[in-house]
Specification:
The structure holds 2 protein chains of 2 kinds. Chain A is mostly helical. Chain A has a domain of 209 residues. Chain A is 74% helix and 3% strand. Chain A is built from 11 helices and 2 strands. In chain A, β1 and β2 form a beta hairpin. In chain A, α2 crosses α9, α3 packs across α4 and α5 crosses α6. Chain B is an alpha/beta fold. The chains are: A mainly alpha, B alpha/beta. Chains A and B meet through α6 and α7 of A and α2 and α3 of B.
Chain lengths: 307, 262
């Protein structure tokens, strides 16, 4: 394997991994405030993919867009993904989880509800949008932007990485530097005491879902741009991103980023060396190995503070 | 914000020693499941007072504080702040009424720094007040030194100071303190009680739950003794300090000393 081959694989891995990182944030944030494994987050991601398609279909992109038009279409797709992703996450919390919290349901009930909500949502999407893959409307000519050591990087790949990095920086800032973030961290550490400080737990939980949902939704749009959009598209990226969150230390925002990137790169190299049939085996083997030696994940369970 | 608050007739609101009542609990009944933790607790805290709430483990001291700050909803009875009914208001809304609650076991946000903890205390305000921060740092200079330190790494005494400082950042008129001396060395306890006295002299009313009855009664103006969920005694702090029943039950070491001397 030559050096340029390694770069080829690395670029693919980083593109994939940055998407996993963005999705993993959604799992980790919600786990932080509710200790809930929100398995329906994969459907938030899927909804974002459809949100992008819907937004772009409504505005019908021109067949030969100018640079400015392309940028606008991309922005439109991102907005569509963010909106539908955020909306589904908001509804999920309000409709499925909040009633359970009111009744002080056990964690098992939450988990079963999450899985049920996931089944419901992707089947609903299948019913509404059809059960065949849909391509994302063309927004730009996907040409090479630049080369790194002989590996070409195209517009979609650059878009995914740039958008992911921007989102990760934003969420890191929000969680660590804003009042909303301090509320999220306080609820993650001690909800009862947080409410003694004047933190409205319901509001914080709702905002946390929306924050994770917006990011998951945009990731869905970006993923759909790279491949296609389908009602079952959430499952495998969702479960991989969940693994990424666990790998990094569930509850830890920066751990989720690290875990996502790691699993993306591992996946790309697994496919290169062992073939596509082994795609998910490599990433999960790494997960098992890491958890054997560090059960709390790479950055441990430091829910609130990411120093 | 206004959650069904009823205006109470002024006459009904009891005053203490000529001071208007800040907090009044009337016939509070609180249950944990089927267990009745408070069986009709009534007490009054006047503006500017220090009131001590004494009693053995499980007497209902913490439960009383939790009912006052909205952490627990009483099944029946009333909680009044300056004559306004506030029972049934959730704790995150009740802080807007000027209640600060320093919970049992300190419970600082262990993974946040000292400064972040203090800022959390001011969460109910638009932004933390620098004057409050200066006040906390002058009351507890050690917190200023350690402002960047992660709170989980502080000593027990420092964490207690942080918990008190954090509550002060929310500008409370009434500070509820749940066992501030718990697990601390006698020297640190004395230091904390001196600071509590200073906080009271600066105008904050204190309702203090303590196992350390001698320490608490020396600081307090008045005291209540709880037994199995009911008030069994209430008097001036000095009277309670010299009451033989209190001395026997809650000031064990003093009683022994008295025996030795006798």
């Amino acid at each position: 394997m030559s050096l340029s081959d390694i770069w080829d694989v690395l670029v693919l891995g980083v593109v994939l991994g940055s998407l996993y990182a963005v999705i993993a944030i959604g799992y980790t944030l919600v786990y932080g405030v509710l200790q809930l494994l929100n398995f329906a987050h994969s459907e938030v991601f899927m909804a974002g993919g459809f949100g992008g398609v819907i937004a772009l279909t409504i505005f019908e992109p021109a067949t030969d867009p100018s640079g400015l038009q392309s940028a606008l279409y991309v922005l439109l797709g991102i907005l569509g993904g963010a909106l539908l992703g955020g909306l589904v996450a908001f509804g999920l919390e309000k409709g499925a989880y909040r009633p359970l919290r009111r009744r002080h349901a056990s964690r098992l009930i939450f988990l079963i509800t999450a899985i049920g909500a996931s089944f419901f949502l992707y089947n609903l999407a299948g019913k509404m949008f059809g059960r065949y893959p849909m391509p994302m409307p063309t927004m730009y000519e996907n040409k090479q932007v630049f080369e790194v050591f002989g590996t070409s990087v195209n517009v979609t790949q650059l878009l995914i990485v740039v958008a992911a990095v921007l989102m990760l920086l934003t969420v890191d800032f929000v969680v660590n530097r804003t009042k909303m973030g301090s509320g999220i961290r306080a609820v993650a550490q001690d909800p009862e005491v947080a409410s003694l400080m004047g933190v409205d737990i319901d509001k914080v939980v709702s905002r946390t879902f929306v924050l994770g949902g917006v990011m998951g939704g945009v990731a869905g749009f970006l993923f759909g741009t790279n491949l296609q959009v389908e009602y079952t598209m959430g499952f495998l990226p969702g479960i991989t991103a969940f693994a990424a969150a666990v790998l990094g230390g569930i509850g830890n925002v920066r751990g989720a980023m690290l875990g996502g990137l790691t699993l993306g790169v591992v996946e790309a190299f697994t496919v290169e060396w062992f073939g596509d049939a082994w795609r998910y085996a490599g990433a999960f083997a790494v997960l098992v190995l890491v958890l054997m030696f560090r059960p709390t994940g790479i950055l441990g369970e430091r829910v609130g503070r990411t120093a | 914000m206004n959650v069904g608050v009823e205006k109470e007739a002024g006459a009904a609101s009891g005053a203490v020693d000529g001071r208007p009542a800040l907090l009044e609990l009337r016939d509070l009944h609180v249950f944990y499941g089927a267990i009745e933790a408070l069986k009709g607790v009534s007490l009054t805290v006047g503006e500017g007072e220090v009131v001590a709430l004494l009693g053995a483990n499980g007497a209902g001291k913490s439960t009383t504080l939790k009912a006052a700050s909205g952490m627990l909803a009483p099944r029946s009875g009333e909680v009044l702040l300056r004559g306004e009914r506030v029972d049934g208001i959730k704790s995150h809304e009740l802080v807007q009424f000027g209640i600060g609650h320093v919970p049992e076991g300190r419970r600082v946000f262990a993974r946040m720094t000292v400064l972040e903890n203090l800022k959390m205390g001011a969460y109910r305000l638009k932004r933390p007040d620098d004057a409050d921060l200066d006040r906390v740092f002058s009351l507890f200079p050690v917190l200023a030194e350690r402002r960047k330190q992660v709170s989980g790494t502080l000593s027990g005494g420092e964490q207690q100071m942080l918990a008190i400082g954090r509550a002060l950042m929310g500008k409370p008129e009434l500070l509820l303190l749940d066992e501030p001396s718990m697990g601390l060395a006698p020297l640190i306890v004395r230091q904390i009680f001196e600071i509590l006295k200073e906080i009271n002299e600066q105008g904050t009313t204190l309702l203090l739950v303590e196992q350390n009855a001698a320490q608490a009664l020396r600081l307090a103006h008045r005291g209540y003794v709880l037994e199995t969920g009911a008030v069994v005694m209430s008097d001036e702090a000095s009277a309670l300090l010299s009451d033989p029943r209190v001395r026997a039950a809650y000031l064990g070491e003093v009683a022994e000393q008295a025996e030795e001397k006798g």
